[in-house]
């Protein structure tokens, strides 16, 4: 069997072990001395942190290798259990301990959360196994593959291996195709096949670069100069939207980076994920990353309250619309690009704009672009007011002024204790509207009476909030929170998540994909399938253990009637071992 056939088999076996929580990983000695529930592998799979912590107190060497030459950290990563992995690392588990065929735990990373946890604690993502294979030969989760590429790893690096990671993935896919149909029909195996197919697409996109990008990747400055005069540097991109500067930075071709970064438009160009060249490599700390960071800083000054540009733009006679762009430009490059927008809105706008221009800012918040109101608004107010009287009708009637209406509502007895009044008040205070039911616009950027540009909105009925981009009254790209907790960050269409984005599972971020409000990414489908398989396994395991217990009691009764000389002192151990073997085999057969 050649190395890639072996790799195919290993991939399948490791996935089955991880996804189906196979108790067969319990060692022979453990089977004869402890129940499945006291096995650390099962504790990791079930997320039993307390039990695992107690077990580790009795374990002299946390980096000890057991089944398959794996440490417990290897298994925690295989099962994608970040909390168990975090506990093991805190207790001294090495993220770079090599297991079977020289692979470290990071070779089995299945999620961004696990990948970041391992990197944070010193895992070497540039490491190769004993055969010279990089992570791209082993990892199949598309979300992890994209993350590694964004961190600067070369997806085409094949070292001394005869075939590239993309070709190796094709051989794995071929091996899946040769399986029996009943195996391929298993939902878990379908997810595996889908992941490998997506992996092939990602890796092939980097192997078939346009000539201009290929020159940038290889550092051929002379040829790139000639070709760049004929080809558009901005329009020539790969499937991810990366320009020649993105590619040069990713492969740390410093001479190319220096040449291309003279073009300010190219320097700030973003790919399909909204990342510029610096965003793509900022965590690599490479020479290219440092150079790009310095270049971006040259186009702005440090933000201070004494900056003349801020003073001029945000003085009392100027508007907030002039103030905010200056702050955005000024802050970019001083802080990490990803945090620039947040810092502008949360820190500099409050400290600078309102400091220099409090009256003007206040006017912009309370002044409506439309002096008249639709009858629907007043119907809402009248229905929710504590009492309907002449004062309300005069202040908030069709002919009334907004300032009179708002003033009346704010002074109306008990209005603060009425959430519906607050909602109606917020609705009245909108500078413009959103074309989505239940949403109230809190921003000031409008076009033709509808939200357009950067802003925020709330939906009190569903305890939702949104901050990000609007287009003609619709939310199109931003962050959604539920009760103040992050829920989704990404593109939207007609009020529903649509396309790639970041979701939050148990408070942790993960890459996800939506289609018209329905989540369709493989990680989500795999989680659902794994939950189903886990439930099936738990039910079958419980039944098998009951049957095993009954069988053991029956054999004990038979033993009492057996002459002493015929009894084996290890007979009880043999019964337990045989029972557990049957449990494992039946569960495995039922799953496949």
Automatic annotation (TrEMBL):
Positions of ANK repeats: 240-272
Coiled coil: none
Alphabetized InterPro entries for the sequence: Ankyrin_rpt, Ankyrin_rpt-contain_sf
Pfam short name (any one): Ank
Alphabetized PROSITE patterns for the sequence: ANK_REP_REGION (PS50297), ANK_REPEAT (PS50088), PROKAR_LIPOPROTEIN (PS51257)
Signal peptide: 1-26
SUPFAM superfamilies assigned to the protein according to its UniProt record, in alphabetical order: Ankyrin repeat (SSF48403), Histone H3 K4-specific methyltransferase SET7/9 N-terminal domain (SSF82185)
Protein known as: Uncharacterized protein
Organism lineage: Bacteria, Pseudomonadati, Pseudomonadota, Gammaproteobacteria, sulfur-oxidizing symbionts
């Amino acid at each position: 069997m050649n190395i890639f056939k072996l790799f195919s088999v290993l991939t399948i076996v490791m996935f089955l072990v991880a996804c189906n929580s196979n108790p067969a990983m319990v060692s022979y000695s453990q089977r004869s001395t402890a129940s499945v529930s006291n096995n650390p592998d099962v504790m990791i799979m079930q997320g039993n942190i307390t039990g695992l912590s107690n077990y580790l107190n009795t374990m002299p060497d946390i980096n000890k290798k057991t089944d398959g030459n794996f440490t417990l950290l290897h298994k925690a990563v295989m099962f994608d259990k970040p909390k168990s992995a975090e506990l093991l690392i805190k207790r001294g588990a090495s993220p770079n301990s090599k297991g079977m065929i020289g692979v470290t735990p990071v070779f089995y990373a299945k999620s961004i959360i696990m990948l970041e946890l391992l990197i944070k604690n010193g895992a070497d993502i540039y490491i190769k196994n004993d055969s010279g294979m990089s992570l791209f030969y082993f990892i199949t989760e598309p979300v992890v593959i994209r993350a590694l590429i964004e961190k600067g790893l070369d997806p085409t690096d094949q070292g001394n291996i005869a075939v590239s990671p993309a070709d190796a993935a094709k051989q794995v896919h071929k091996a899946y195709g040769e399986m029996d149909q009943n195996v391929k029909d298993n939902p878990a195996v379908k997810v595996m096949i889908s992941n490998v197919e997506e992996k092939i697409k990602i890796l092939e996109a980097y192997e078939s670069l346009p000539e201009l990008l290929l020159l940038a990747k290889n550092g051929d400055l002379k040829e790139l100069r000639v070709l760049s005069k004929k080809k558009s540097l901005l329009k020539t991109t790969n499937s991810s939207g990366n320009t020649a500067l993105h590619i040069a930075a990713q492969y740390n071709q410093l001479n190319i980076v220096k040449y291309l970064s003279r073009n300010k438009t190219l320097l700030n160009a973003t790919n399909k994920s909204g990342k510029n060249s610096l965003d793509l490599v900022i965590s690599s700390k490479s020479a290219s990353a440092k150079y790009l960071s310095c270049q971006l800083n040259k186009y702005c000054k440090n933000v201070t309250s004494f900056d003349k540009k801020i003073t001029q733009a945000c003085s009392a006679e100027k508007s907030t619309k002039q103030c905010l762009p200056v702050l955005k430009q000024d802050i970019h490059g001083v802080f990490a690009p990803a945090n620039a927008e947040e810092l502008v809105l949360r820190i500099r706008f409050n400290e600078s704009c309102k400091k220099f221009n409090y009256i003007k800012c206040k006017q912009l918040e309370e002044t409506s672009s439309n002096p008249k109101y639709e009858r629907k608004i007043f119907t809402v107010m009248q229905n929710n007011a504590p009492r309907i009287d002449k004062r309300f009708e005069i202040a908030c009637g069709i002919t009334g002024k907004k300032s009179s209406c708002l003033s009346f509502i704010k002074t109306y007895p008990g209005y603060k204790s009425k959430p519906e009044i607050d909602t109606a008040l917020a609705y009245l205070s909108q500078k413009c509207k959103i074309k989505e039911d239940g949403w109230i616009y809190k921003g000031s950027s409008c076009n033709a009476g509808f939200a357009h540009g950067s802003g925020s909105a709330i939906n009190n009925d569903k305890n939702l909030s949104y901050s990000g981009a609007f287009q003609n009254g619709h939310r199109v790209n931003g962050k959604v929170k539920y009760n103040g907790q992050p829920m989704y960050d990404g593109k939207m269409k007609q009020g529903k998540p649509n396309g790639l984005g970041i979701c939050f599972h148990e408070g942790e971020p993960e890459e996800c994909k939506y289609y018209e409000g329905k989540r369709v990414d493989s990680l989500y489908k795999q989680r659902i399938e794994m939950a189903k398989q886990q439930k099936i396994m738990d039910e079958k395991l419980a039944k098998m253990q009951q049957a095993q217990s009954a069988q053991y009691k029956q054999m004990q009764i038979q033993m009492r009637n057996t002459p002493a000389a015929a009894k084996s002192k290890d007979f009880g151990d043999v019964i337990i071992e045989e029972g557990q073997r049957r449990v494992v085999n039946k569960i495995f057969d039922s799953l496949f």
